[in-house]
Each structure stands twice: as C-alpha cells, then as structure tokens.
Fold:
Amino acid sequence: MKFLVFAGSTRRQSFNRRLAAVAAQMGRDMGAQVTLLELADFDIPLYNADLEAAGTPPDVIRLKDMLDAHPAWVICSPEYNGSYTGLLKNTIDWASSPVAGHPVWHDATRPFAGKVVGMLSASNGALGGLRSQGHLAPLLVNLQCWLAPRNFALSQAGSAFDAQGQLIDAGQADRVRGVVEQVLWAARRLHGAP
Ligand code: FNR
Structure:
C-alpha cells in the first residue's frame, strides 16, 4: 500500500511536520510504502487564475502525480485562527484545479477522488488544532476523499516530542497509530492493494 504523509506547515521546527514523521514511521512499521512529502520541496505560488492560464506550474503537476499515486494519506494540519493554514488551502486549490487540455489533469478531482485520508493535527494549545480538522474535513469530502473516522489532535505539542522526535506519551502514540492503521485498512479494502 502506497501511503502519503504530509503536513500543512513548512516551519523548520513544525510540530505537524514532526507528527507527520512519526505517522510515516508507523506506516513503514506496518509494511506500507511510505512517502513523507514536504510542501517546502514544491515551488507553488499563491493561486491566481491568470497565472494558471499562462501555464500550470510544473510543481503543481508533480504534486498532482504524487497525490494520485498514493491511495492512502495522512494530513497533519496546523491550526491558524481556528482553521487550517493558507499553505494547505493553496496547495489543495492548485492540486484540485483542472488543467485545460491535459490528458489526465483536465479531471479536477482526480488527485483526490477515492483516496482514504486520516487527519491529525498538533498545536501547543489545549485543543491540539482540532478545529482545523473540522474545517478541513468538508473540503476533503467535497473532493471525494474517504475520511477515516479516527482522528487525533495533539495538544501541548511543545512538550510532546523527545529529542529524537518521538512522542513521549505512549497513549498519544497509540492514538496516532490507530489513525494510520485505519487509513491503511480502509485503503486496502477500497483499492484492493496488498
Ligand atoms: C496560530 N496558532 C494557533 N494555534 C491554535 O491552537 N489555534 C489557533 O487558532 C491558532 N491561531 C494561529 C494563528 C496564526 C496566524 C498563527 C501564525 C498561529 C499557533 C499555531 O498553531 C502554531 O504556530 C503551530 O506551531 C503551527 O503549526 P506548526 O508550524 O508547528 O506545524
């Protein structure tokens, strides 16, 4: 099972990037073929239809390819003002915008439709970024993703990781593992992959 994990932050010390690394390792331990995607590796401007009309940026096509190649995803969503980040929205907007005349990417929802997605979030606050998930969920469902019923929001994230980037609390690690397990379980059933 090809499993994609990414965070909606490019901050060097990002809690959500750290949580994504934890989820990715759990996926590897479960035998998945894991891609830990870094949005910083994609040169994607702020969405503008005039810019798009002049030609979809090559990294948007690379992102669409990457999303589409993975039936199972986990997104680690930071919370800004009770919602997900502009970076995550911009990334999803570009990835879901049809490329006129393109043999594959004329289909807007193609990178998203049928993907099984688990949501995680991390914040130093008490709610762990949970409200960002509440906003992200309908967006993903609208794009025809299958959302895993399990989710997890890591609160007090500033003291949750050890120096090696592992979650200190075993109960929190179990919650993350539960999401990864469910995503891989459902993706195998929907996509018939081993
Ligand atoms: C935040 N932050 C924040 N945290 C939270 O729990 N709820 C919130 O509503 C907000 N709002 C908010 C707005 C803006 C503009 C910023 C810049 C930040 C704090 C935010 O969650 C924190 O910076 C996290 O560390 C961001 O995630 P990463 O980069 O650590 O993954």
Remarks:
- The two ends are 6 Å apart (CA to CA).
- The first helix runs from residue 15 to 29.
- DSSP finds six helices and five strands in the chain.
